[in-house]
Amino acid sequence: MTIQAETHHTKKHKHSSRKHNKKKDSVSVTVNEKSPLIPKKKTGGHNEFNGASMSGAVMNLSTTIIGAGIMALPATMKVLGLGLGIVVIVIVAVLSEATVKTMLKHSKAGGADSYGGLMGDVFGDLGKKMLEACVVINNLGVLVIYMIILGDVVAGSSSEGLHHPGLLEGWFGQHWWTGRVFVLLVTTLGVFVPLASLKRMDSLSVTSGLAVALAVVFLIVLAGIAIVKMASGSLPMPRFLPDVTDLNSVWNLFTAVPVLVTAYICHFNVHPIRNELEDPSLIEPIVQISLVLCTTVYIMTSFFGFILFGDSTMGDILSNFDSDLGVPFSYLLNDIVRVSYALHLMLVFPLVFYALRLNTDGLFFSSSELPLEFDNKRFIAISVGLLSLIYLGANFIPSAWDAFQFTGATAAVCIGFIFPASVAMLGFQSL
User: Fold this and answer.
1) Where are the alpha helices (DSSP H) in 277-329?
2) What is the DSSP-derived secondary structure letter of residue 366?
3) CA 143, 295, 206 angle in degrees (round to 5)?
4) How far apart are CA 428 and CA 431, in angstroms?
5) Residue-wise over 385-418: b if at least 16 C-beta within 10 A, else e?
6) Which of 83, 217, 367, 385 is most solvent-facing, going by the fewest CB within 10 Å?
7) What is the mean pLDDT of residues 383-389?
8) In a 3-state reduction of DSSP, which class is residue 357?
9) Which domains are seen in the chain, by residue range?
10) 311 vs 171, 239, 243, CA distance in Å?
11) Buried b / exposed e along 343-363 (16+ C-beta atoms within 10 A)
12) Three-class SS state of 394
């Protein structure tokens, strides 16, 4: 679609006066579904933006990958066994790299600047709408998982008749203001609303770097505790293969698949990150570096987490850090682990929300004349509506594991594997 937009660039005409050149001119700007939400370059004043750096892009993509999925990976080791689980993590990483490469290859061939534009080129408007719907379902589910984990960490949770106190309850005791509903409301209004207002992905590179650093802090503490307990001989030998005894245990193996699939879904942010790069050709090495970094973190977290808690590992491993771990300064280490990862999830939130808001706009407001960036009313309305849904979902969905099963078995597998494979099969005929 073509829209009229005001620009501050002066337009030279053969018979224009110097005075006229200083005024804003109205020009025609072509904006379609392939156009990035934010222009790659902006000039003027102190807001000059000449493209994102490679390091910032690596941080943003790595942060998109390392989200809530890392907390459920130790529980998948309980289902698959340590040996098989690590092998599957590596296989999914390789498949994810292949699907992103396929997506970028066909985007370049068709000149698409977005995942939706690529799906539109190959499958028409229906394909674009299907992708947008899947991204909305997946990202909405992922952000609900983030909120559930934050609620578990800060306000506490109950599972199988056992209550796991949160940070506030452990510090101050049980009060109305340490309850889940109030804590999540304050978190939403005080943290997520300001972060959700950011309009350019590169502006999140600093927070993404902090998020990766906090994930590393969590991993170091987890590994340190496990190594100390292994050295003292107080940890049993972990299972390396799944415990298959009957038909139900066979079916139980498939519950690990959605978590593993969700753990690597970053495809919806690859194009926005590439569009903002100073050198877009760097996107493939950026993807490879990010996947290697995240796979290393995933394997180490799965290994040390399952070794430490064994068959007692919960769907959200942070819930295991609420009792004496049998090491010096146990309760202090528990708090460090939970606080560091709660902060990590807060910093990851805007990256996932960025794509959620953009695809929600494309799904429901595709006929709008102005891009979302320039329509403040639509931008605010979509943001508030999505944050409200996330808040309600975090209060009514029982656990993060249940949400993982839904998103990973439906939308995530389409975004990460089915759609790229379909593009690979039909792309050359349609582009």
Assistant:
1) 283-309
2) T
3) 55
4) 6
5) ebbeebbebbeebebbbebbbbbbbebbbbbbbe
6) 367
7) 90
8) helix
9) 50-430 (1.20.1740.10)
10) 28, 9, 11
11) bbbbbbbbbbbbbbbbbbbbb
12) helix
pLDDT tens string 338-355? 888 888 888 888 878 888
Residue 157's H or E segment, with its range, is: strand 156-159
Section 15-27 average pLDDT: 42
Q: DSSP letters along 46-86, please?
A: T--B--B-HHHHHHHHHHHHSSTHHHHHHHHHHHH-HHHHH
Q: How far apart are CA 187 and CA 109, in angstroms?
A: 43
> Which residues, in sequence order, are bridge partners of residue 131?
none
Q: Which residue has the tokens 């891009």?
A: 371
Band (pLDDT 50/70/90 cuts) for residue 145 is confident
Q: Which residue bears the tokens 């700007």? A: 29
Which amino acid, one-letter code, is at 71? Answer: M
Q: What is the pTM of this model?
A: 0.74
> Of residues 143 and 52, which shows the higher confidence score?
143
DSSP assignment of 196-226, as one string? HT---GGGGHHHHHHHHHHHHHHHHHHHHHH
Q: What is the mean pLDDT of residues 140-153?
A: 84
- For residue 159, the cross-strand partners are 162
Task: For residue 224, give every residue at least 6 positions away whose Cβ sits within 8 Å of its Cβ, in sequence order, or none.
Answer: none
Local structure of 26: helix, strand or coil: strand
As a whole number, the mean pLDDT across the chain is 77
